[in-house]
Amino acid sequence: MEKMDFSEISDTCKWESPDYEPWFPVSEKSNPLTRDIDKSSPNHIVRLLAACDAQMFQKDTGTTYQRMFSDSVVLTMLEVARTVEQILRSCFNRALRDRQQNTVYSYIIAGGDRALLTSQEASEDDPKLGMLTLEKLCEGKRRVLFIGISCGLSAPFVAGQLDFCLKHPDIYTPVLVGFNPVTQAREETMPGYSLTFREVVQRMEEQRGQRAFIINPAVGPEAISGSSRMKGGSATKILLETILAAAHTAAFTNTHVTHRVLLDMMRGYERVYSVTYSHSDQIATLLQTAGLSLQCGGRVCYLSWGSLGLVGLIDASECIPTFGADYEDIRGFISGGYQDMDNIEGDLTSLGSQFCIAHEDFVSLVLPTLSDRDTVLLLYTCHDDVGDVEKMVHRVREKTSNLHSLCHGLEGDTAVDSIGLLCSSVLNITWPSSSTVHMQWELSSKLVLNAVSTGSHVLKGKIYRNHMVDLQVTNSKLYHRAIHILQKLSGVSLTQCEEALLKAIYHVEQLPEDITSAGVTTHTLTASRRNRVVPLALVCLLIGCSLSEAESRLESHPVVRDAVEACLTSSQHLTSSPGDQNSTNH
User: Fold this and answer.
1) DSSP classification of residue 369
2) If you ran DSSP here, which 8-state letter would residue 62 be given?
3) 109: which residues sit within 8 A by CB, 6+ positions away?
4) What's the half-sphere exposure (Cβ side, CA atoms, 13 Å) at 572?
5) Closest CA to 467 of 151, 154, 29
């Protein structure tokens, strides 16, 4: 397996030191590797992202953090996989008797299916809604393995579900997947609930290995602080697919899941990482092209086929809360629309244009106004209808030459890639044939798209150092994240930062009691209807100005990063970089 060379990139393990940002959980720390990512070239951005992703696969270093390959993690995965295997065997036997296969898997997402396409962050804050949604979905079930995913061990929606499972152990076996140690689980009281997330996790700890399981390796801080869509999403996919694929193989071949099987599958995903980033130059080309489109007010469109469609849709939708992006900045489209997506709630196009996701929607809504300032990226595999892909290529080429492709093929395939001849750039990745190759294609595509969408927003100026300074403050997690970003960049107390954030949210110079006494849910509901509240608050803090003056400064510097830099330059913070200070106000 080709090893990536990061010899010129230092500080790969600095985040593991107990003295490094000790007040933050791992998932919210800033990654020392990417401190200057906002000033990097496209090629260097890709190298930095690759170095961060490599941290997912680092072996146990003997620190307080367990890693993905640690024995404790793999053994817990083994126990969960064997539980899945037992359920599958039982379902398979019933199916043989009934001569029809019943649905074994289902999913719940905070905010429903619309959260796959647009920002629905507020739903994460409701533990009772999570509990009721799970109870309704599983009504009448005799045995349920519930896997709750919360990368930071923080989402109240998931905590409510886990708590419900613990109260009904005769039916439910809860599994928590996240990437912080248990001691770093969120301690804030959940709205309308008597427990904190940490208290729920501690209850799971008491039953760990018997009636509850926790899979929580540390994968290192995200390249952009707190952006769990990146490593958090990739590691979740690796862990779940390893567990479920191993359980399936065992159940339907009359064998058993073993420790070695799980390790081999995870090493396979490590090879996916290496193969994908061996094409760093081509990824950088896509990143730069997408960045230029966003910088000049253009759009980036992912046109996908097959299972890669969902990868593109999710990557695009996550840019909205992460970068304060408009839904049209980066959009995903899937060939067969909701039929290919196969979501529980079915066709959502009646909800508005942002829910129009089929290629025919692209043709009717986007193609007529497409120009060379827009970037179009095709995502397909050798298993897809290449003729259909080629037809779409010709339609797009009538409007723009700014067309690019990411194609996954199999080793030994000698077919001529006629589509690549029509594209400005081509990224062809070939893989050995295997029963899990489609999952490898998906992870590889996710890594590429994460790099493209993140890097293009870096180039657009949406990141300062490695902080998302234009995030949307739409739930309690993002509310507290915004306060900590303000604190780190301004150097003032958390209390002052919260006051500045509230003034920006409510657009007032003085905070009346009805605002200061209101709950976080009220604040985030108001913030969801505002733009650029974090940049506004930050400018006020940096130069001690009024909201109106801060707005004027932001208007004179449309690029958020440039506005922050200008304020730092004109303030007393120039000689003492506040972002590198260890504040005592935590």
Assistant:
1) G
2) S
3) 115, 116
4) 4
5) 29
- Supply the mean pLDDT for the chain: 89
Distance CA 379, CA 359 (A): 12
Contact 118, 176 (CB under 8 A): no
User: Measured between alpha carbons, how far is 185 from 163 in angstroms, rounded to an integer?
Assistant: 14
- Considering 330-334, 466-470, 563-567, the range whose residues carry the highest mean pLDDT is 330-334
To the nearest whole percent, how much of the chain has pLDDT over 70?
A: 91
Q: Which residues is 278 bridged to in the sheet?
A: none
**pLDDT for 66-84, tens place per residue?**
999 999 999 999 999 988 8
Supply the DSSP string of 111-170, one letter for each residue: T-GGGGTS--GGGGG-HHHHHHHHHHHTTT-S-EEEEEE-TTS--HHHHHHHHHHHH-TT
Please give the DSSP secondary-structure letter assigned to residue 1. Answer: -
Alpha-carbon gap, residue 172 to 354, rounded angstroms: 36
Cβ 222 vs Cβ 232: under 8 Å:
yes
Distance CA 460, CA 563 (A): 13
Predicted confidence at residue 184, as pLDDT, reads 94
Pairing of strands 467-468, 463-464: antiparallel
538 burial via Cβ count (<10 Å: 0-12, 13-18, 19+): buried
pLDDT reading at 88 higher than 80: no
* Closest residue by Cα to residue 162 from 233, 211, 111, 229: 211
Instruction: Please list, residue by residue across 44-61, b when 16 or more beta carbons sit within 10 angstroms of its beta carbon and e when fewer do.
Output: bbbbbbbbbbbbbbbebe
Which residues make beta-bridge pairs with 405?
378, 426
Show the tokens assigned to 155: 């989402």
Tokens (6 digits) for 578? 């506040």
Q: What is the mean pLDDT of residues 530-555?
A: 88
Alpha-carbon distances of 431 from 280, 428, 452, rounded to whole Å: 17, 10, 22
Question: Are 262 and 244 a contacting pair, CB within 8 Å?
Answer: no
Looking at this protein, which amino acid is placed at residue 373? R
Sign of CA dihedral 283, 287, 290, 292: negative
Instruction: Record the tokens describing residue 32, joined without a space.
Output: 């020392």
CA-CA distance, 378 to 386, in Å (whole number)?
11
Beta bridge partners of 331: 301
Residues 6+ apart with CB under 8 A from 200: 159, 162, 163, 166
Residue among 130, 73, 83, 76 nearest 107 (CA)? 130
Using the predicted structure, report yes or no on whether residue 163 has a pLDDT greater than 90: yes
